[in-house]
Every structure is written in structure tokens, then in C-alpha cells.
Amino acid sequence: MEKLRVEAVGYGMALTPDQLAKFETFYQEMIAWNSRVNLTAIVDYEEAQVRHFLDSLAVVCPLREKGWDLGGHLRMVDVGSGAGFPGIPLKIVIPGTILTLVESNVKKAAFLRHVVSLLGLDGVEVADARAEDLAHQGTHREVFDLAVARGVASLPALLELTLPFIRVGGALVAQKGRRAGEEVAEAGRAIELLGGSLWGVRQLGSDGQALVVIDKVRATPETYPRRSGVPQRRPL
Known about the structure:
- By secondary structure, the chain is of the alpha/beta class.
- It is about 40% helix and about 20% strand.
- The chain contains 11 helices and 7 strands.
- It has a 7-stranded mixed β-sheet, sandwiched between helices.
- Helix 1 (about 1-10) runs parallel beside helix 3 (about 45-55), helix 2 packs antiparallel against helix 6 (about 105-120) and helix 3 (about 45-55) packs across helix 5 (about 85-95).
- The longest helix is centred in the first third of the chain and has 21 residues, at about 15-35.
- It starts with a helix and ends with a helix.
């Protein structure tokens, strides 16, 4: 994990030997499971350190800009977690985080439970449920300080899947690609309707990746999210 260790310094992170060992174990388990669960197309050792781990840790940067205290018990939900990105890397570097990983694919959820247990990560829930259903449950609705997601859906649909989880005063950090600016423009109505406010867009390196940060400024109407599949088929 030397590339990760060196590059993380640019984000103001001095990763400890224990944290680097956890990232190494995470990578090896992901590769071991990948042939039967199809977790990721990125399997190269150095590329995974950047695209999976370092890009996940970049979420910390806008939170610091916003003046958030990351030393406390931050409540975070990772929607559409897949192989655990960005939620698990963030949990490794911010161990006090209380994390919920939402992944409806049962096999991927099984991998998440396995790796969370193997890494000895406390305070992590794996919810193998649809975000559209989970966000209507009182135990999960508008209780999280932070929602994170990458590669789940277009921004208008993603907002409907994530903002209902976030308390007023919290935020969403969405990892997006080269169309981040266009997606933000397309999501204006959804942002307003769901109780959000655009805080900003931050670029990640030179490959076109970006972080879109949405503040939660008002409660989300109870009708959202709509039933399973509708946010993607008919984005707001």
C-alpha cells in the first residue's frame, strides 16, 4: 500500500501501519471474492489503491473545508455500497464513525459483512435492502450526518435515494465522473424539492472525477423516495 500511503499525504492524512494493513487485507479479500461475486473491474494493485482507496478518502477534503469535526461519532450512510466504497475506507481512517452500508445485492452484502468482521470494524451495519424502502423506516430516515455514494445513479435519481437519510444540517458527498457539472445542472429541481442546497463541486485529480456536495437544509417530503426503481426510471 505504498502508493496509497504516499498519495494520502496530499489529503493531509498520515496513514498508520495498522490502517495500511487493513487496506491491504481489504484489497486481498476483494480480489479473492471477485471471481464469484463480481465486485469490481479494477483489480490492478496500484490502480485499486488510487481508484478505490484514495478516491474514497478524498471525501474527507470537502468536509474539512466545511469545518466538520471528524473526531466524534459521525453517523454515515453509504448508499449502494457495492464492494464497500467509499464507506469502508472512510471508516478505517475515521474509526469513530457509525456506518451503515446499504447494498441490496445479497452476495455483495455478504462480502461486506465478511470484510467488516475480518477488519474488526466496530459500529458498522450492513443493510441488504433497497434504499427506497430503508429510507422510509424511522430508524434510518433523516438520522445521518453524512451520506456518501459513488456510481449508483444519475444525480437527480441519486438525490432521491440519499437525501431522505440525511438530517437537516447534514450533507451528501457524491462521487461523480466527467459529467458532474451537467448532472448538477440537471438536478436543480430535485435538489430544491428534496430539501437540498448545492454547496459545491470539487475535482479529484486530473482524470475528470469530482465530488458533488449537497447540504440538507430542509426536511424531505414524506412521499420521497418513491417506490423501488421509480427514481431511476423517472428522475425528478
